[in-house]
Amino acid sequence: MAASYAEKKVRVPFGSAPVKKGYFGKAVKRKIQLFCLLVIGLMLAPVVFAQDSDVSLLKERIINLQNIYPLGIRTLIACSKVTDYGFYEPLPDNKVKAGDVIFFYFEPQNPSTKKTAGSYEIWLTQDMVVLTEQQQEVFKKENAVEIHYQTRSPRLDIYGVNQLTLTDIPPGRYIFKAILHDKIKGEAASATWAFVVVR
Predict the structure, then answer these.
(1) Are 151 and 99 in contact (CB under 8 A)?
(2) Does some domain include residue 8?
(3) Mapping DSSP to helix (H, G, I), strand (E, B) and coil, where does residue 68 land?
(4) Does a structural domain hold residue 56?
(5) What is the pTM of this model?
(6) Residue 61's closest CA among 73, 49, 53?
(7) Same domain, yes or no, for 102 and 185?
(8) Shared-domain flag, residues 25 and 107
(9) What gap in Å lies between CA 45 and CA 131, rounded to an integer?
(10) Residue 73 pLDDT class (50, 70, 90 cuts)
(11) How many domains is the chain built from?
(12) Which element (helix H / strand E) includes 3?
């Protein structure tokens, strides 16, 4: 007597996809990978927080030293273009023509930072003066630049830009003088750049 077999049909719900071989293995692998990433993240988090804390402490020490030492101008560079902090195109030499536009990039040295209720304030102004070689004043503009920051964290990348247009100035030797004022520290500092106006 021949054995007979009944064919058993399995109904798949409408809209569901058949389960592929190895699907559950891949899902488990993904879960293990995600778990490993989570563990690594938890292990690295204290290191990242410690680094942030170290950087914050270093910034605090820097501004404390800047508050102690006298104000100065670290850098004064005549440029054809200024883009950002530390990014500028210096003039090839100190020879300019009447009508030229000169940009002066400068970085304050030891600006004072005022700390109040979790905020940090820096407040500087700058005058620009043009003198003849005999120290006679031919141009002056007070408060030509104002740098006033109020931030939640210390700011160290401080710079300013002067724009000087040489109109109606005869050929000769001149001196550009930048005078920086610290409104918080109550100090002033200056720097100069000698130049020649040619025809």
Answers:
(1) no
(2) no
(3) helix
(4) yes
(5) 0.71
(6) 53
(7) yes
(8) no
(9) 57
(10) very high
(11) 2
(12) none
What CA–CA distance (Å, rounded) separates 77 from 98? Answer: 19
Amino acid letter for position 198: V
List the strands of the sheet with 160-165, edge to edge. Answer: 87-90, 72-84, 101-109, 160-165
pLDDT tens figures, 51-62: 556 788 888 899
Distances from the Cα of 170 to the Cα of 139, 166, 192, 196, angstroms:
13, 9, 20, 10
| Residues 91-110, mean pLDDT to the nearest whole number | 95
Query: Does 53 lie in the same domain as 144?
Result: no
Q: What is the pLDDT of residues 37-53, one digit of tens each?
A: 555 555 554 544 445 56
Quick: pLDDT tens for 114-128.
999 889 999 999 999
Residue 38 backbone dihedrals phi, psi, to 5 degrees: -65, -45
User: Do 109 and 134 belong together in one domain?
Assistant: yes
Q: Is residue 15 part of a domain?
A: no
Q: What is the mean pLDDT of residues 176-182?
A: 98
Three-state DSSP class for 135?
coil
Structure tokens at 122: 């820096």
Residues 159 and 77 in one domain: yes
Nearest alpha-carbon partner for 67 in 150, 153, 125, 154:
154
Q: Which residues contact 31 (CB under 8 A, 6 or more apart)?
A: none
Reading the block at residue 74, the tokens are 């670290």
Residues in the chain: 199
Domain that residue 38 falls in: 21-68
